Amino acid sequence: MSNKVLFLKSGFPRAPLGLGIGRYVCQLQRVTLKFCKTHGASKGMRDFLEHDLVDYASKNSGIVVYVKPRRHRTPVITAEYLNGEKQWMNVSNYSREDIVKWMELLRTQFHDGTKLRLRKLWHTEFPSIQGPWTPLTFKDPSHNLVQFPNKEIGSAIKTEPTATEQLIELYKAQQIGEQQEQKTENQRNTSEGSA
């Protein structure tokens, strides 16, 4: 097993200040696309520039996109975020579709998540003094002395009839209505026959 994760920065999952509170602020500030005009490894990047770059730039007007041709170098995407972090990515021999997906990922994240080792999957600045919630938190203490299985406690709480029960009631009402109509029709027939 590798120990390289021990040298990564550690922290908790977090969102940048104000993100999602009131309005969404795209954290990607600047993208630099470096490529070679002739090298075969840059074909996917050149296809992205020819077909998708104008749409990407028009849809994401808050992101500054720089295009930098370099001779005989591998294609690279450099992303800079509002918190000052930079993410560098080698996209040598990537297809156009792969570059579209990576550009979308860079746009939606707020820093390079692979550089952070998570201490825990959750974190709060204001921990509860009551402890974590459990299904037994607000139960009646008298339930501690009950012998289980208990039909009273274990029964499901029904507040209103289910859709199936409503359909059965409608069907029964319809059957009763048809029986009453049948009876009244039979009574008419017998009264007409006797007269």
Automatic annotation (TrEMBL):
Gene3D superfamilies: Glutaredoxin (3.40.30.10). InterPro entries: Ribosomal_mL43, Ribosomal_mL43/mS25/NADH_DH, Thioredoxin-like_sf. Residues 175-195 are annotated as: Disordered. GO terms for cellular component: mitochondrial large ribosomal subunit. Its main location: mitochondrion. Keywords: Mitochondrion, Ribonucleoprotein, Ribosomal protein. One of its GO terms (biological process) is mitochondrial translation. Residues 37-110 form the Ribosomal protein/NADH dehydrogenase domain. Coiled coil: none annotated. Belongs to the mitochondrion-specific ribosomal protein mL43 family. PANTHER family: 39S RIBOSOMAL PROTEIN L43 (PTHR21396), LARGE RIBOSOMAL SUBUNIT PROTEIN ML43 (PTHR21396:SF2). This is Large ribosomal subunit protein mL43. It comes from Vespula pensylvanica (Western yellow jacket). The lineage of its organism: Eukaryota, Metazoa, Ecdysozoa, Arthropoda, Hexapoda.
